[in-house]
Amino acid sequence: MTKEKVKVLIIGSGPAGYTAAIYAARAGLDPVLYTGGQPGGQLTITGDVENFPGYPKGIDGPQMMMDLQAQAERFDTKVRHGLVTKVDFSVYPLKAVVDDTTELEAEAVIIATGATARYLGLPSEQKFVNKGVSACAVCDGFFYRGMDVAVVGAGDAAAEEATYLSKLCPKVYLLVRRDEMRASRIMQERVKNNPKIEILWNSETEEILGTDDVAGMRVYNNKTGERKDISIKGFFVAIGHKPNTDIFGGQLDLDETGYILVKPGSTRTNIEGVFAVGDAADHVYRQAVTAAGTGCMGALDAERFLAARELEPVHS
Q: Catalytic one among 60, 67, 136, 296?
């Protein structure tokens, strides 16, 4: 196995990873970034991005990621394609294995592995991703203003998405699989009292309908057996996200759903020299701009950590 020593290792790309790389590189930390299994992260499967500052006309998600990569490389970040498959944070320097072929020793590690939206798994759902199907109402709801839409889910996230969309859309269908919701009481009341939101209880989506873009959905009532087609233009899936943090289990402190826990007001984890940024540690905001912000924080935290180590007295 090939061995290599690096100063700062960034695991994962996307707004958080590339922003961390830009700041780390400008600080002279010689960062090495591995893009992961989905180079550029979730934004590479996103169409127009209109809510990131600095793009008054919006920008295509993949193009934005290419721009961020080019900016990171401009300051000599080494961007490499590869997947970190194993880490060992019980020793220092910190260790990571890439593609089971290369072992890295790093003085600091910034984790930017992100999170993946959960989908229903319907073939028609994947067909219409970015063509009416979305996992983020805050990101994409604006494109469906004045149109009827649907939200799938029963928790707080689904209730929040439905409420948000009701400010833009004349009709929001909320599909709940059972005869009750998991959302907090206050969120349930908010949804139930919203005249623009219609809750379809005991309802599941059998198929998303349309030719080039979403035009409707076929809904199955699992209590009555009834099926009906409903006309919509947007279909929002709000059944949760899965943080891409499996390889850190048993080494980093994670919450019950797998998000990395960081010290309040920082990106520091329970392991000295390991920092977590972006959606791998954020289950609340999950926006490109907040991910970029924590990427900046991670690089600054890493820089301060390394500077403090250099000042530590050497014991003979």
A: 136
**pLDDT > 90 fraction of the chain, expressed in percent and rounded:** 80
pLDDT in tens, 146-189: 999 999 999 988 999 999 999 999 999 999 999 999 999 999 99
Q: What is the dihedral of CA 156, 158, 159, 164, to 10 degrees?
A: 120
Q: List the catalytic residue out of 139, 279, 282, 301.
A: 139
169 is catalytic: no
78 close to 31: Cβ distance less than 8 angstroms: yes
Backbone phi, psi, residue 72, to 5°: -65, -40
Q: Which among 210, 69, 71, 206 has a CA at the least distance from the CA of 130?
A: 210
Domains of the chain: 2-116+241-311 (3.50.50.60), 119-237 (3.50.50.60)
Say how far residue 26 (Cα) sits from the centre of its chain: 25
Picking from 271, 262, 292, 274, the residue whose alpha carbon sits closest to that of residue 9 is: 274
Which helix (H) or strand (E) is 161 found in, with range?
helix 156-166
301 flagged as catalytic = no
pLDDT in tens, 285-300: 888 999 999 999 999 9
Contacting residues for 91 by C-beta, under 8 A, at least 6 apart: none
Distances (CA, A) of 1 to 47, 94, 98, 106, 198: 39, 17, 10, 16, 58
Enter the tokens of residue 146.
Answer: 């004045």
Closest CA to 245 of 198, 278, 294, 199: 278
First to last CA, the chain: 33
